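Exercise 3.2. Students should predict the tertiary structure of the chain below and write it as structure tokens, then compare their answer with the key that follows.

Predict this chain's 3D structure.
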Amino acid sequence: MAAVDLFYSKVLDNELTRPFFETLDMESQIRKQIAFMAWALGGPDSYKGRDLRGAHADLVKNKGLTDVHFDAVVNSLEQALQELGVARDLIDEVLATVGSTRGAVLGTARP
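Answer key:
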């Protein structure tokens, strides 16, 4: 998926977000992100990946993942979708879906 590849290129180019991703197996991360985005946007009925809270807990606790980083990642996604010529209404839908995960990712939402 071109959007995910471009998105991660932007995330890795950003000094603020790079430290959270630079040690990951990016091929595996890209596959996970494609599966998650497909599910989150109405694709397959089930998502088999880790829950968002658990998947990001170490980053919050040990690397200081905060709203600032979440916003930077969302901004990278928006830029990637814009560069690919995705319609604004679809971009807004994607960003709303991603935005709804903030509490789980940052561990601030009730489980």
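Discussion points: The mean pLDDT is 90. Helices lie at 2-13, 26-40, 52-63, 67-83, 88-99, 102-106.
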